[in-house]
User: Fold this.
Amino acid sequence: MVRLFLCEDEIVMRDGIKNHIDWEKEGIEFVGEASDGELAYPMILESKPDILITDIKMPFMDGLELSELVKKELPNIRIIILSGYDEFTYAQRAVSLGVTEYLLKPISPGKLRESIRLVAEKIEEERDLIRAEEEWAKAEQEERIAIEKGRLFEALIMNNMSTSEVLDKAKELEISLTARTYRMVLISIALTGASADSFSESRNRLKDEIITAYETDADCIIFDRGLNGFAVLVMADDRSGSEELTKENIRILQETMERYEDIEYFIGVGETVNRLSEIRNSYYEATRAVANRFLVENDTEKVVFAISIDEDDKENKSSGNKVPERLKLNIEPVIDSESPHKAIENFLRTGSSVEAEPLLDSIFLAIGEQNANSLIFLNYLTMDIYLAMARFVKEIGADSEEIDKECGDINDLIVSSMNSEEIKAYLKKYLLKVIEVRDSSSAKKYSRLLSSALSYIDECYANEDISLNKVASNVNISPNHFSTIFSQEMGKTFIEYLINKRMDKAKELLMTTDMRSSEIAYAVGYKDPHYFSYTFKKTQGMTTREFRSRGRSTGEGK
Assistant:
């Protein structure tokens, strides 16, 4: 609501203005009155009105002096001067002070009310502009922060930045990475009964709920990994504190995700490390833990497979011939004729390249030393895994001959006398190549997806309610994942692209039609013509009128 203050020394005039206008009906809050500028000044500073009505001729401090003082403290205030003196010098000084209206007495209540209404409408328009700009700026900032936070996560797990560079990037995002211990917790999520990259409102609600849960937790930093789920970096003063925080994190995550019936999830916990540069090691161990989900036979809709590889497990792992207690699997389902290829088939659909090696390590560890020394069993296992990979390559329409040429012919492998390590090395190489082919196919899919999204934007940019969420829903992926793909491929955020699209169309209409600026605003998707004009000037460096005049004069001069 617009706030108004009245300063008038004639009590009859003051009471008439105060009592003969229905302020509430006009959408105005009457916040105070005074008989002269000296009394009014402190009251105005305290009440901070949007409009000041003041007489120009008053004792102690006149209206012009009051206006000058008030403007210095409240530069955005609108001032309406009431004057019985029709002299040019008064009006001239009033203009120099930025007075909005200069009205001569006597003035009718209707005329004053109309002037006040016009000023109030202008104030509301400007407020709408500010709100609209703040909303767009906030949306764009959130999109940029999400992208930069993703880059910070990549820097932590790839070690492709120096420690000082990582700390500087974290500081820009107002994230503190100062701690004595670090531990990575990975949460892999997938929709049940739907493809892994399907758009889901449940996935978005889950994302919002999990991120909100960590907003005020300085000891944990959550990273949204899009379709791959989430990563939580747990920071503590010592290993004991890290263990307690990790348990609490798992509890929170489980309680949250159990409320989503259509989401299957897995949790992997890495080792506790002491340096920022060692976070990648914790991430790798967490990834190894999550990769074991492909070896678990599960009949329920959800699985929690949390593995913490710490000091005790490191000793077992380094022995080379003993499976850590928490990684032991029942040998029967593993050596069953369907289990190895099922694990590989599941992995190829949703697994990542970093999980390939730990998955095969787990398969070979699980078959046992006796089976690993049996050439017959190794040949069986090799063919089982190879055929699963070959079927997948055919399924995605890729050329298996190119992979065979690079990795070697499977027939040569079978007839050769090779030990389990050589066979495992061959399968790892083949599996990584298949993933590379799959990801290349996905890149093409994203190219098609982006093309579809751009077509949708081209068709719907003039809809005032178009948003990143709506476009992402149209191409059937999550908004966060779409935002990442869009910014990477287009070199700009979705909001930047949409504004440019609207401005380009607006410039076309300005040059090829006689439509008014307000009509063009609606035609390109702005419900507020004033905000359209503001955006146009901000992005193009000139008003719509200046653009039209300059463009047409240039065209006439050719």
Notes: The chain has four domains: 2-129, 179-320, 329-443, 461-556. Residues 326 and 338 are 23 Å apart (CA to CA). Residues 329-443 form one domain.
